[in-house]
# Entry
Amino acid sequence: MDIGRLVNSYLKSKVFRVLVLLFFIFFVFFRAFDSRILFTDSLLIEDASYGFSLGEWIVNPEIEGRVDLAKPPFFYWINSVPYLFFGYNPIFRNWLIPIVGLLTAILTFKLARVYFDKKTSYLSALFLIANLLFLFFTKTANFDLPNAFLITLSIFFYLKIKKGKFKSTYLSPIMIIGFLTRSFLYLFTPIIIFFDHFVLGGGKLKTAKLVNTFFVFLFFAAIWLIASFSLNPEYFYNQFIKIPFSYHAYGKILGDESTPIFYYLIIFILAPQLLFGLYYAVRVIIERKKSYPDSLIVFWFFLVFVTLSLSETKHLWYILPVLSPLSILSARGYFDMTKNGLKGFKKIVIDSFLFIFILVPLAYLVIKPFPEANIVSAAKEAVAHSGNERIIYLWRYSLLPETRFFPGKEISVTNQIDENIRFLLIKNRDIPEIGFDYSILYSNPEFSLLKFEK
# Structure
């Protein structure tokens, strides 16, 4: 089966386009409002968003009355909308993320369509959707999928401006929103844009207008930075400045395990079809003959991928911004590999590879729900077993957020066992440090709940 010819045969059909959209909607929204908590950021976002709806804070996010400046406020502001109208309901915890996921898939299609044909655009979006990492993070509130969307949206607007389709003034508001959503991790965007403009060149965007756009972005970002610092200078330094640089850049968050420099290659295990993109990116670099904007998309992919790989703190959700460019490169790679036609065994192998690794993650999502976060499952067991105990104790690391909605008890981090502690949540790797007699009431792949006899 020639996928390019098959796609081309359907592209002119409105029914086909509607079916594709419904396909995307189904897989992005399927299981998106499950009551299980897949990711602890959901708890923080829920509390801060609800607090904003009550008028408890405006500039600096607060969680259960505590200033939390690890993330800027824009995502909380938008996420608070249903709370403003309907009050608290746990179903609102993840309401925004599936929408962002669907928009990211559509935007990936539109971005590819700026320079490439429809079959490349459709396959780019399909590669993105059929990705376990992407599908997982459309099911839980998290800052990095909105960051991926806003980086992609910024590049899309930039390319449209470069072709003379949009005004340059459209870009500044998107960049401001991007910074106020994910702060420093959004700053890949101006690097990508400036590299394209000054190194790759071309287009109708004048340097003066680009610089003006950047200064408008800096001006409005500075307004929030100054206001935030003025309100809570200590928190601003310790959380907004110190955490990203002391932990993410050259250190580890307490409780995290060391990860190898090649950690993010796991995305090619979760979505093997993206290997087409890696193949194509290497060809672009080696041959230096590929048409624009291949070089821009390759730079975008490698800038984010290599920078995050060199960071000491690595989490899978950080890498979400590479999925859109890598999906486009994968579609380009597939059609480049098959442009001269494949016959016999090679054709069977490549097409089988493609279909299997597109269908497997989608089938997995339908057959089996994603697991709840290990620390959340362990905390629920701690609440169930501890009865009238007022405090849940964590061993050494503050890995469970305490909000007004979860876990319903006070959380305390301890480095020693005394007579007041009857139940303890602990990472499995740290259990040998405990010298007291205990029984294990619950255990999952990462955490255990210990009980001490008085």
Observations:
- Residues 374-452 form one domain.
- The chain has two domains: 3-367, 374-452.
